[in-house]
Sequence to fold (211 residues):
Amino acid sequence: MRRLLLQNLAYSLIFTLFISCKSYRLEGVNPIANSQKTVENLYFSSNEDYVYKCQMDIYKNHVSGILILKKINETAHRVVLTSDFGNKLIDFTISENDFKLNYVLPDLDKKIVINFLKNDFHELLRQKYPVTESFENENSKIYLSKIDKKGYYLFINKQNGLLKQIIYTKNNKEKIDFTFDAKKHIFADSLNLQHKDFNINIKLFQITENE
Fold:
């Protein structure tokens, strides 16, 4: 059953490559002077383990397990996904410019699956964003960061100063919506990762909290 589920997951990813996404535009915002040169996502910056309950929905396929993230040095993280019963599914080390696959379950060892995880976690774990433009609306300060052909819209809650959302775009097309729920700058209590050009959703819910 698990083998069939993982095969269906890979086939679904291949099918969704043919789906396009729309251009992204900010609405209901006002431009403001650039008061910050850099914005940081510090949710995965602690040296302690981040342990989450993980749920992945890919079309009609549902996969759940335990996700462990650990910062191993200033530029790299170790990411391990296990089943609910503790069996390792995938283990990799990732940084801005490098990716090392330490282990993968044979049923998951598909290029498209590995690339999907590599790209998603590369964007999720990006920490520093140079600010290109700044905006605001009633609830948020919004910083646009442009890196090559990629754009990142970072929404900072005005009330508590916490990062609540990142919209990742490429060639001005919306790719991924990262939405965070947090009480402190270094730890997200939950994360919702929603693809806009794939029917893929990843949800993380805290199991252990960083101090």
